[in-house]
Write a structure and sequence with these properties.
By secondary structure, this protein is an alpha+beta fold. It has nine helices and four strands, in the order ααααβαβαββααα. The chain has a single domain, classed as Glutaredoxin, CATH 3.40.30.10.
Length: about 190
């Protein structure tokens, strides 16, 4: 995959929603976005990132899981000058959709973390562990929530932390990369 070309065709958060979301979908995303809060510890961690990261999210404005997770990703990216975050609609690039299939399904959101020079570092998606635990606890409910009701406080905190954990993991992979340490002299 030419990650740089794909990344450059993707859109920042608000532009993605403007292009791909209808009024109702944008309102749902906005409701979750307003609930997300990063702790001081999380902001400190993100502010300490040393390596540039390009983060691409395959998503859909219509997807309930995306409604409940992507706003956290935007908050995380806004807290770090080292993260460039872009979103691409799952149904726009069919080759990308196939390449990022999970369990042979076209699931979203899927995050691809890329180095400053667009080497793939890590992938993560489509639901966090806490989301799966919640679904299992509720009796293995519907396969795809519709995003009508935003996640409740503790669940949203867990979702945000799990996405942050994956981004931190990728940052550490970048920070400890022999190739990048040689490039940056550190």
């Amino acid at each position: 995959m030419n990650w740089q070309t794909i990344f450059e065709s993707a859109l920042p958060y608000h532009e993605f929603l403007k292009k791909h979301g209808n009024e109702t979908q944008r309102a749902r995303w906005a409701a979750v976005y307003e609930q997300v809060r990063l702790s001081d510890r999380q902001r400190l961690l993100l502010g300490g990132f040393a390596r540039e990261m390009n983060v691409l999210v395959l998503t859909g404005a219509w997807c309930g899981d995306c409604v409940n997770q992507c706003p956290s990703m935007e908050h995380i990216a806004n807290a770090s000058p080292k993260i460039r975050l872009r979103f691409i609609d799952r149904d726009v690039d069919h080759a990308l959709r196939e390449a990022l299939a999970i369990n042979l399904g076209h699931r979203v959101p899927v995050m691809v973390m890329l180095s400053e020079d667009f080497a793939e570092v890590s992938r993560y998606g489509e639901r966090t562990l806490s989301a799966y635990r919640r679904m299992a606890a509720e009796g293995l409910g519907p396969a795809c929530p519709v995003g009508v009701r935003p996640p409740e406080g503790d669940h949203l905190v867990a979702i945000t932390q799990e996405w942050l954990d994956e981004i931190e993991r990728a940052q550490l992979l970048l920070r400890l990369s022999h190739r990048l340490r040689e490039r940056h002299g550190d």
